[in-house]
């Protein structure tokens, strides 16, 4: 995805170093809500941290770092979230991860960004399956995945360490054939 993927109200494009300040501001305003779902948030405490995160994304093709995209509001050009694809050792599988800054939630941006990333993954990456893992208490994440066409596959118990606790992880998946027949 060189120039970006255009949706109705959003644009997904590769994160660039110029996004460091906007990314940090988006994380900072969403910090409490994001901390409940994502372990890396506590470690991002400055613009320098967000710049390092973006630099790591730049090496995604060569390493196991996720390929991350800025979720940009087309009207304002504001960075309103980040959507990532993490490839796995098994070719054809990738994990979707996505967040929207708290002051822009509830506008179906999560759903639009999820659909755009799935479009990118299946159209350009020869993917067979896109999957996501969420905390069972994450009702908004579940709703977003269901509406994007993902199916529930089961729950892994005590699969992840988050904020000093072991948490279960619900598994959701979208197969290429399901995406094609959507
Ligand atoms: C999950 C997330 C991306 C959704 O972003 P969003 O832009 O607010 O989502 P949308 O506006 O597209 O809403 C998706 C659905 O969730 C519903 N929803 C939103 N908040 C909800 C809540 N607290 N409880 C239940 N449903 C909720 C919405 O009503 C909508 O369903 P509808 O269209 O049938 O009304 C956002 O909450 C987020 O960033 N969460 C933290 C990261 C995360 O958990 N990611 C998980 C996916 S990998």
Q: Report the major sheet.
A: 8 strands, mixed
Mean pLDDT: 92
**Residue share in helix:** 25-40%
CATH topology type? Aminopeptidase
Low-pLDDT parts are none
Number of domains: 1
* CATH level-4 homologous superfamily: Gcn5-related N-acetyltransferase (GNAT)
The first-level CATH class is given as Alpha Beta
What is the helix tally?
Answer: 5
Which molecules are bound besides the chains? coenzyme A
Gross CATH architecture: 3-Layer(aba) Sandwich
Report how far apart the termini are: 22 Å
Strand order of the largest sheet: 1-2-3-4-5-6-8-7
Number of strands: 8
Shape: globular
3D architecture notes:
- With 182 residues, this protein is an alpha+beta fold.
- It is 32% helix and 33% strand.
- Strand 3 (67-73) and strand 4 (79-87) form a beta hairpin.
- Helix 1 crosses helix 2.
- The longest helix is centred in the first third of the chain and has 16 residues, at 20-35.
- The structure holds coenzyme A.
Give a short summary of the structure.
This protein is an alpha+beta fold and 182 residues long. The protein has helices at 20-35, 47-58, 109-124, 139-147, 176-180, and strands spanning 5-6, 10-14, 67-73, 79-87, 93-100, 129-134, 151-162, 165-175.
